[in-house]
Amino acid sequence: MAFEWEELLQEEVLDPGILSCQGCGSTIAIRQVLKALGKNTIITVPACCWTIIDGPFPYHSLKIPFFHTAFETAAAAATGIRAGLNTRGYKDTNVLAWAGDGGTFDIGLQALSGVAESNEDILYICYDNEAYMNTGIQRSGATPYKAWTTTTPYESPNKRPKKNIVEIMRAHKIPYIATATVAFPLDLYKKVKKAKELKGTRFIHVLAPCPPGWRMDSELTIKVSRLAVDTKLFPLYEVEDGEKLTINYYPKEIPIEEYFKLQGRFRHLEEEDIKEIQEMINTYFEKLLEEHKRTHGTIDNIKRGVYK
Amino acid sequence: MGDLKTKKGIKKVLYGNHAVSYGVKVSRAQVISAYPITPQTQVVELLSEMVGKGELDATFVNVESEHSAMAVCIGASITGVRTFTATSAQGLLLMHELLHWAAGDRLPIVMAVINRAVAAPWSIWSDQNDSLSQRDTGWMKIYCESNQEVLDSVILAYKVSEKVFLPSMLVLDAFILSHTAEPVEVPAQEEVDEFLPPLELPHALTPEKPYAIGAVVMPDGPYMELRYKIQKAMEKAIPEIEKACNEFYELFGRKWEFVEEFMMDDADVVLITSGAVSSTVKYTVNEIRKREGKKIGVLRMRILRPFHFEKIRKILSGRKKVIVLDRNISFGLGGIFFNEIRSSLYSVSEKPILLGYIWGLGGRDITPKDVEGVIKDAEKREKDEDIIFWGLKKENINL
Amino acid sequence: MAERIRYKNIDEIPDVALSTGTTRVLKTGSWRNVKPVIENKAAPCLKACPLGTKIPHYFYWIIEKDLEKAADVLLERNPFPAITGRVCPAFCQIGCNRKRFDERISIRELERYVGDYIIKRGYKIKELPSDTGKRIAVIGSGPAGMAVAYFLRRYGHSVTIFERESKPGGVLRYGIPSYRLPKDILDKEFEMLLNMGIKIETNKELGKDVYLDELRQKFDAVFIGIGAWVEKRMRMEGEENLLSGVHFLKDVNEGKETSKFKGKKVAVIGAGNVAMDVVRTLKRIGAEPCILYRRTEKEMPALEEEREKAKADGIPFHFLTLPIKAENRNGKILLTNQKMKLGEPDKSGRRRPIPIEGSEFQEEYDFVIKAIGEEADRKILPEEYLGEDGWPYADKKTGATKVEGVFAGGDFIQGPSTVVEAEAWAQRAARSIDRFLKGEDINVKEIPPRTVSFMLIRTEYFDKAPAIHPQELSVEERIKSFEEEVKTFSEEMALKEAKRCFSCGYCNSCGNCYVYCPDMSILWKDGKPVVDYDFCKGCGVCASECPRGIIQMVSEI
Fold it and tell me: Are A57 and B30 inside 8 Å of each other by CB?
């Protein structure tokens, strides 16, 4: 079958030579994100892997203006840029805050919440690699339950479940929230396109596998991303106005063990741990199904089979 | 003040805080973001009202912290628009990281800091430690004595910041200025427009300029050179400030100098002061001169950064005694102004006796009696003394 | 070209850390120690096809609805796809990776679809090379002879075929019943072959009308592909009372009178493909045939498909039954049969039938037809052409006989086989002949292509979908006539089925490698992926996400 990604066959909005690790999930994500947004975009990036990835001074990869901002300020800086651009008449220029999980779930949450509560007109995308990877794999609020990091060693793995950022954002009743991940690039692309057309605070949570941090081979990025979805661990869904919930794809319901066994950060899990986590996953997915049903009256309209 | 050249300005009775607001208004700030803190709130209350009523064509962004307020200003400023924020004490300290950021990105942001004591314990009254703990962030700093000076300094701050591309911090004392009403002349908009053209930021990020700002610089990259350039910009700011002040005088008839010299011509003893308390000091010195004919003068430090070493040296060279009055303290060192003055006198051949007084911390009242007391105390001292706490209650402390 | 930024002096450095250069100056490819190599590999179907037909490749063009290109690819390896698309046992389908996912692809039906398209639009071989001036005589116009002629023609040689019968085709015309291979398909296919400039002289039998020595003198090379037409002997009493299966089929195919079989009881001995053709033909001409076979259904040499069709046609199979005597009783045949049981496996791996003492029984038939297998005419060639076993010999890899300039193949050498195997032999022989004519060594060492196993297929990129099967006549309809019983795919069916193909080992430009590359290092050039080694860090995502095993990570250390 000939080329299956017509929408994504566009000029790249970033140059190669980027300083990402091999198999970096976030770079796969940003390619699709920027293709959806186009060059009429300004990006602001707080401390995160992308601080480094975009290149050292005086070089940079992205073919759009890139503003490096402080760790906790992505949402606020983006708001400022938006205000500035509006003042200068650049009303159709997209403003993108592109932040890691640390800058979103943890240190940047306050500013993000403030901005979301004010429904400032920005697109905020969190590429979530589930720990402070740029500093060397320290635990963040996005680190999964019982996962290893350098600050939650095998002897004492992460004690708390991952913070549910989508639920937090939902509570702000912003117009658009979506989850996405790199194995489904068209899904991500379409969500960004959709978000682009909306006004107000739009939030996309992108799961971006990190081979060094997840203790896995670099070639597994897509595979693991796909498994995250198909195990129901990371369902693909959208929430509009904090209320209407749509599951975009019905996972294959693969046992979570398949996801865990590819990653060294879960290698210590015992059978009962896996069972416990599987139950947590099932419960949450059931909840999502209920909400989908509440929105759509049925769950039969959820796409199954090959999803992109 | 001489002849008022202004023909179109309007006299108003304004709180110091509102003088800030009017200064911002006539400077046509385009994006304003702030978070409330006593005693700053009136500044942004009035500004939000002005924006709300359409009197000021700006975007007012409410945020959840001072940190974000500065982040919004930085974000807006990087697109090349004029920005403003105001804060005090804890809020300023929370911003600290971003003050460096603004200077590092060479953004001409102007901020009003309503000087307030730093917790703990809580205190909301005048004290310079909040602003002085931001001394090394790369911001220009203006310490104001009157509400007219406050308003005028806002305009001047934009003028100079937008010449040298460094941010400016305008400092006024909590309550003493902020909540005290004085007659202030608000210059006419068209006159301010003549003085202050729209901002043109050479490194503004707009979609047609796909550059990155602030990327990591390796040790062999020009991080050090970029720091050198900030220093050079501070040095360049000295003549720019002088030029701007002259131009301002030409247009508005008010002369704001780098430092203010009061009865300094023949003064052997110089009291160095800053902020609103300067008025009390000047009043007392004048009284003593009239009464006793003592050769006392006052040097009011208006601009702390850039520090005009040459000027200070020239003024203080040959004086017998220099008394520096600090409403602040660097623990383990002493008064901050004192130490800066002292370092400026290092190369002077005939050094005056140098005395450092710490007073008025946490809003402790400073009266003419205190000024007289200091002068008398200083008369007794014939050698340098770094730290003298004035007004410290050591006994019979009844609350 | 991106260049590194240099500041001549400090004033040239911007006031802020303003990055204006591109990261293209940072050749991150130097981080790599393994590199992706994009290279097509062999699909199991391609590998299983004796002709090496580039199956996924021409499927690609079916999907693209460019049947011209599909035809070009198919004809590169297969001279008459409309024929093999009907009669091939389709070895390709056996190992189809898709079988392990849901159902195998109907490869043969797709081949037939393109084959019929070729017939419809007329034969066009792209860029036939200019004439080499070399002339080759081909004896026999069956699958081997025709195919060798075709391939030689594509090499640019002149070919003259000498055919014993009045029409070309050999077993295709005289052996295969027209309900499986209609004569007009055969005629059209051959007409097109002859239009390529292949000359044919019919009614020229080797040893009668043409002689090998003479051909050797007149031509630069000779290929013998005269098939295997001699019925094997059963060594039973009264064997002369039995009819020959191949002769029976030839008669029917030639349109000879068949009314004598109508309503008659006919026993057919044997259970190979010829036996199936014989019983099914008998059924269509109104006889009441049955099969007699000494082993069981499990050991039947006929293709499963043929067997099932014969069964569906309603033909009784008598297993473990061995005729041992045939007596002519007033024009009818009295067969004495012995019941058998299965013993230990023999050389072929099938269990050997052992007679059961005293189990003989008799049955009377109007006709008994023998279809136990055919062999070459071993007397047709002189001594120097025979192998140690006394049969005509030619090398399996090259088709060369022991006599220089003479090549042979097909059923004549390998014994009764399939059309595709005869064609494949011809393909190898044609290459040898070409090399021989150029004075090159005819022995070519071939490195077999790497096969893409099911393990390398990323099934997550495919939806399950049942195979598309061709329309067929119902049993009631088909046993009444010689109308072709299987229909060619419609375009819709062909598209649907071709789209099911995993395209194992053949890059169909799906774009996964391009989309998933974290380093913008898979470039998309003229519809194909190209690795940009300047920046590729060797992560392996492209190889991992290639749905069809085309990208391999190769060590660079």
Answer: no
